[in-house]
Amino acid sequence: MSRGRFITFEGTEGVGKSTQLAQAERTLTDLGVDVLVTREPGGTPLAEDIRALLLTPRDEAMNDLTELLLVFAARAQHLYGRILPAIESGRWVLCDRFTDATFAYQGGGRGLSADRIAQLEQLVQGDVRPDHVVLLDAPVDVGMARARHRGALDRFEQERAEFFQRVREAYHARAAAAPERYHRVDASRTLADVTRDVTSLLTSLVAESRST
Ligand code: TMP
Question: Residue 96 belongs to what domain range?
Answer without folding.
Answer: 6-211
